[in-house]
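Notebook p. 47: complex prediction with zinc ion.
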Amino acid sequence: MDSINKLFDLAKQTRLNAYAPYSNFKVGAAILTSGGKFYTGCNVENASYPCGTCAEAGAVAAMIADGETEIGEILIIADTDCILPCGNCLQKIAEFGHKDTLIHSADTKKVVKTQTLKDLLPQSFVLKEK
Ligand SMILES: [Zn+2]
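Predicted complex, structure tokens below:
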């Protein structure tokens, strides 16, 4: 199985665990690190709306908790035409990715678009050059 198929399957499965009782908009994410490890996340809403977290944030947290720090690719899936990371998540991806990090957008059937971090966030806030 190539990496994009595994990313898709992992994100799709993780999306099912999303906690989204307020929006009913479930999102899943899966990261493949540059070292070949996979991590997943899903959105977690809260009655106090700003406390909620995005799927990408969960996947990044799982990656960091396991000692990995470099995103190679990330896939985001939702039941919509073309899900994209929000601005906060693009900045999170920029912290651990690079300009050519692949960001795959998927609906529940297939990957519908692949872009790079540079495409979606051409200028990010950085304190150190990579
Ligand atoms: Zn986000």
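Notes: The CA atoms of residues 31 and 74 lie 4 Å apart. The mean pLDDT is 96.
Next step: compare against the earlier run before touching the bench.
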